[in-house]
Amino acid sequence: MSGVGGTEIRLADRADAAVIARIHMMSRVATMPYLPPQKRSHDQVTQWVEDVLLKSCRTWVAVRDGEILGYAALEGDMLEHLYLRPEVRRRGIGTLLLDQVRRHSPAGVSCTSSSRTPMPARSTSSTASRSSTPVVATGTWRGCPT
User: Fold this and answer.
1) Domain boundaries, the chain
2) Strand pairing of 109-112 and 135-138?
3) What is the per-residue pLDDT for 113?
4) Domain spanning 4-138: which CATH class is it, in words?
5) Cys bridge to 17: 49, 58, 76, 131, which one at CB 3.0-4.6 A?
6) Dihedral over Cα of 120, 34, 140, 100: its sign
7) What is the pLDDT of residues 100-124, one digit of tens each?
8) What is the dihedral of CA 106, 63, 40, 52, to 10 degrees?
9) For residue 39, which phi and psi values (nearest 5 degrees)?
10) For residues 31 and 35, what is the distance between their CA atoms, to the nearest angstrom?
């Protein structure tokens, strides 16, 4: 699938694990400063991606010019993860990933939120209005390395 600025969405594979781990770690620091510092090394998070994430979730990556910009992971109808490189936020890439997730969850997508504050209305309402597939935010992230 091709989208914003030549960004393609494809299924992730084991060869993507180290980059997915790096994105996970960078995004966590940049967008969730209230969380305690990362306790796991890049190698440990890469191992988690390989052993847990890619085995338990359908995972897609957003790629432009051969570079992975973000990823989304779906377990059943639960959006477990959606992370972007911090410098590519607000450019439609997260929406492309979410649209891919929605295509594989026609009955709806549930998601969890690790945020201590409500998601901005712009993010939830503008994204939700693009599809008839509901997205529901509940609880806390599962299966995330800290």
Assistant:
1) 4-138
2) parallel
3) 55
4) alpha beta
5) 49
6) positive
7) 998 887 777 777 654 433 333 333 3
8) 40
9) -95, -20
10) 10
